[in-house]
UniProtKB/TrEMBL annotation:
The keyword Calcium does not apply. PROSITE patterns: ADH_SHORT (PS00061). The keyword Zinc does not apply. InterPro entries: KR_dom (IPR057326), NAD(P)-bd_dom_sf (IPR036291), Sc_DH/Rdtase_CS (IPR020904), SDR_fam (IPR002347). Belongs to the short-chain dehydrogenases/reductases (SDR) family. Keywords: Oxidoreductase. This is SDR family NAD(P)-dependent oxidoreductase.
Length: 286
């Protein structure tokens, strides 16, 4: 973790403590041993780190992403450590390929017990540079929302029938703070959040749970090109992978930085104040 000054230290402490303290529900091994866990975006960053921890804890890990070499390397790392893992290379932007991959996974393994919707792309582009870029909104929706929905539609029938299922959606802390400058990205993640809230309302009595993780900044390839983050407080991919694993163990409905959750409370009480804070943040270039 890198930091600058007391403000970042204090904010980091609030941002990265993960969920509020909660009743422990056992260990990761107890939660995943013998379970089939599908992780999208498992070729790098948060997804890769989570997949490796899950494999070490006894899950059968099903890894999905486009880059075959990286996917095979992550799979090998799990298998070499004594775990079970299978790679399913797939471009989740391609609806037909995504559905074929889900069908193959269900055929090979008989079902999925835990789904981690982690694959994603981020776009930082302010409004004044977006007027001719409706496709930014389409491509973030295609991957961050529609692909994740396709995954859920594929695995939920089996989860509901077996009366066990955990769906973990990796969203962004910007979904709590608001994301001026990241509108296409934040909107696509918000859509995933909303659809999961509706699904949860339908499946609550079936032991099928949905967790929204409002992930703070993580030092992965996704943020590497943005030098504004060089000195910002952040999690390592391994720490973020453990947040995903915690979500599986505790399966809270929402999980995220305390600071961001307080921001949401302020927004609920006075949206004008929250708008003003968002505008100040955007104007200051953060
Ligand atoms: N880093 C952060 O600060 C941060 C903060 C909040 C939330 N998040 C979220 O965390 C998730 C993981 O991101 P990361 O930070 O770990 O970045 P990353 O290392 O770039 O990982 C992104 C993953 O998504 C996969 N992916 C991208 N496009 C895909 C496609 N069309 N089909 C299949 N897989 C695809 C990538 O694999 P391939 O390239 O091999 O396909 C890669 O495994 C994302 O949903 C991101 O929005 C990140």
């Amino acid at each position: 973790m890198t930091s600058t000054g007391w403000w970042f230290q204090a904010k980091h402490a609030l941002d990265t403590r993960g969920p509020f303290p909660r009743r422990r529900r056992g260990t990761l091994a107890e939660a995943v041993t013998g379970r089939r866990v599908l992780v999208t975006g498992a070729s790098s960053g948060i997804g890769r780190a989570a997949a490796i921890d899950l494999g070490a804890a006894g899950a059968t890990v099903l890894l999905v992403a486009r880059r075959e070499t990286e996917l095979d390397e992550a799979t090998r790392t799990i298998v070499t450590g004594g775990g079970k893992a299978f790679a399913y290379p797939c471009d989740l932007n391609d609806a037909a390929a995504t559905e074929a991959t889900i069908a193959r996974i269900l055929d090979d393994h008989g079902g999925v017990d835990i789904l981690v919707n982690n694959a994603g792309r981020s776009i930082r582009r302010p409004l004044d540079q977006s007027y001719d870029r409706a496709h930014d909104f389409e491509r973030t929706m295609r991957l961050n929302y529609l692909a994740a929905v396709r995954m859920m539609l594929g695995v939920l029938p089996g989860m509901r029938e077996r009366r066990y299922g955990r769906v973990i959606n990796v969203l962004s802390a910007a979904n709590l703070f608001g994301g001026p400058g990241y509108s296409a990205y934040v909107a696509s993640k918000a859509a995933l959040d909303e659809v999961s809230t509706s699904f949860q309302g339908e499946t609550l009595s079936e032991n099928v749970t949905f967790t929204s993780i409002y992930m703070p900044l993580v030092r992965t390839a996704m943020v590497a090109p943005d030098n504004r983050y060089l000195k910002a407080a952040s999690l390592s991919p391994e720490e973020a992978g453990r947040v995903v694993c915690d979500a599986i163990v505790h399966h809270p409905r929402r999980m995220g930085p305390t600071f961001g959750r307080l921001t949401r409370l302020v927004d609920a009480i006075s949206t004008e104040r929250a708008d003003a804070a968002r505008h100040r943040r955007f104007a200051s270039g953060i």
